[in-house]
Fold these 2 entries.
Entry 1:
Amino acid sequence: MAAATSTPTSLKEIDSKPQTPAFNIAIIGAGIGGLALAIGLSHHEPPIPFTIYESAQQFAAVGAGVGLGPNALRAMDLIDSRFRQQYMDIATGNGRPEKRHVMMEAMLMREGLGQEESWWGKGDWGGERFERTGAHRKDLLDIMTGFVGSNYVRFDKKVKEVEQVGDEVVLRFEDSEVVRHAAVVGSDGVKGFSRQVVLGKRYPEYVKPKYTGKYVYRAIIKMEVAKGILGGLATDAKMYMSKGGNISTYPITEGREVNVVMFKRDEREGGWRSSENTEEVSRKEMIADFTECEGGCDTRLLRLFDHAKPLRWGIFHHPTTPTYYTSLICLLGDVAHAGGPHQAAGAGQCLEDALILSRVLGKLYSNHPSILDAPSHQRTRIIEAAFEAYDEVRRPRAQKQVLTTQECGELYNLRRPAMDVDMDRDGDEEGEGDGDMVKVLQNLNTRFEWIWEHDLEGDVRAVEKRFEELVRRDGDDGGELARL
Ligand SMILES: Cc1cc2nc3c(=O)[nH]c(=O)nc-3n(C[C@H](O)[C@H](O)[C@H](O)COP(=O)(O)OP(=O)(O)OC[C@H]3O[C@@H](n4cnc5c(N)ncnc54)[C@H](O)[C@@H]3O)c2cc1C
């Protein structure tokens, strides 16, 4: 673990002597992204040293349920096969066996839920190789923390400053402690401060997350209660759609509970004004968001709000991230590529990041041990090569997820998205009749394949190959890595 120092007034004042001579990677943030990277680094043989710094006082699952697709499960498997096995032990599918491969079923949010529509009962989307799995975040986090020894995590350590000083990175915490590391991985969430460190100088316009124009309310409801409200609809994943908002429901905790997320299109002038991610409102305002929105809301769905906290969670994203690293500092998870949750793929992208980054760092750790123990220009160059290879493999795919999930949210609101779905029906540009839903379903039944079916083993090969190419290239150019 990194050693503490006295407290100089500026990071630059610290002399360049290493205080953590051994190679040790700092991970900022113990969310799904940071923990998954920690599992990957621990699983490497020999384990790659790291320290997680988390601002919270303990592991805390923010939010409620989380659904994971086949790519996420494969990433878990490749990070550490026990990770996937343990997740599968707690993962919850749809209640009815015939819905095993169904991601969600389309309904309308308006009164009657669309039961009179011709597509009623045929609104499933999913895929043969897709298997519905969801979990309570706390259960997922419990599994992940079980892999990471508590001596590798330092809680109540809010990172305030990060600066590269020579061939090391210096971190200062809110409590004034200062530590040094060989490299830093920022996985501090959508509003994470490490984004400023990586992008601030070169791309200041892309530092701040952008508001997606939607906020959510959330609830976890006992299955018996949900069945009392929705009947048989409660046991399987559903998406209730309308122009003004949409509500998703799916079973978690082995079917004992239902996770509910109520999405509202924000039509207020100026959109999200609070500087915080959340905003408390009255229960009346929360209900009005859905009774008064375009398309209205079925009275059964409104009863779900009895179990929701009147707390709006603004949904922010990073549609453009020009790079995921600068020299010895790298971004992972939502701080790099937060997206709206419409494709239920954000956590999966964190897991993919963790897989690829842990593998390329593993290659570095195994193949070039002689230069890792002490800070040097050579060590900096080789870490940069690993981060560059990670950036090249991960960024195009992760950023595509951010853009396509935004479009997906438009589909749930039966709006014309920025893609080749023509929702016109008899000249009705944005109706919500049968024709529209058929097109929406056609789209939903094909739009997830590139996420779910992706060749992650291929990505692992690609990142390792690219890393070695970059090391060789540096050598060919007469650079210092030639001697490695
Ligand atoms: C409503 C909603 C539903 C979603 N549903 C799904 C879903 O079904 N499937 C899916 O795949 N994804 C889903 N997502 C997305 C998914 O939750 C995120 O992509 C994922 O949790 C991000 O993890 P992370 O580790 O990058 O960030 P976070 O979980 O935000 O973790 C960041 C951590 O960093 C810590 N931290 C922050 N700043 C500092 C600092 N300065 N110093 C030290 N520590 C710090 C925080 O305390 C936190 O613990 C959903 C998102 C939302 C909003």
Entry 2:
Amino acid sequence: MLPDTGRYPELAERAAALDAADPLAGLRDRFLLPTGLVYLDGNSLGALPAAVPPAIEDVVRQQWGNSLIRSWNSHAWWQAPLRVGDAIGRLIGAAPGQTVAGDSTSIQIFNALAAAARLRRGRPVLAVDPGHFPTDRYIAASFARAHGLEVREVTPAALPAFLAGEGGRVAVAAYPPVDYRTGELHDMAALTAAAHAAGALVLWEPVPRRRGAADRARRAAGGPRRGLRLQVPERRAGRARLSLRGPAAPGRLRPGADRVDGARPAVRSHGGV
Ligand SMILES: Cc1ncc(COP(=O)(O)O)c(C=O)c1O
């Protein structure tokens, strides 16, 4: 809730002056939040953008309700993963065709691990941050169980030494750029370089905007079942393949990216994005 500024009028005045001078202040109106609430959580669930309820209403009532099955073509539902992915790609510094808006974060993490492990066949180890967001650890464990891989829990601080010793056995390292509990920012560039030097790939989840090419998956704060934006660097785009996939979006795929394909779109959440 808003702090009681009654006892500190000079702070309230200063805050009001800063707000008045803030070029971003008007953006507050683009979000719906309960009156009086200061909401800073962008991790599990961001604030509701005001444009989302009418967009979802349109998807449900007009596109689903009126156009029915024709919507796959007439409202371009087939192309939604790439259309939405490219729109997000512009925000996060990705080239067209590199970002796919898919199903839930969990499914896309699984997809990204599968794509990475396939590119590093014969390497039996999946290195995971023990402090990773629980979903990411559960998915890594499920993926490893299903594919006969071994999960090694290694903290980001210990990762370079681990990779120097056993990196030749590591297929992929799954790490968050930020410890979600403490806010500690890990050195993405150094850890990516250490993994690459060992011939391993890195799955960063989530990824801050514009951090250069890593072997990464992206998640944006949206609504429930908002979908992960899966991004692979250009040099791997032609080879990375998703396990859980749907039909390609004709004409939307960049040459060289023709095997990075969204799963059947989660139409309502894509409409919301
Ligand atoms: C960092 C991170 N990873 C994974 C998830 C799981 O997302 P989903 O429920 O869409 O699979 C969340 C959800 O908040 C998250 O914050």
